[in-house]
Amino acid sequence: MARPDFDLIVFDYDGVVADSELLNNRVLADLLNRIGLPTTLDYSLTHYMGRRWADIELLITERLGLPCPPHLRQDWFDNCHQRLKIELRSVEGFAPFLRQRPEQSCIASSSPPNWIELGLELFEISDNFSGKIFSGAVHVERGKPHPDLFLHAADAMKVSPQRTLVIEDSPAGVMGGVAAGMTVVGLCAGGHIRNGHADSLKAAGARHVFDSYAQIEDWLAS
Question: Are 201 and 209 in contact (CB under 8 A)?
Answer without folding.
Answer: yes
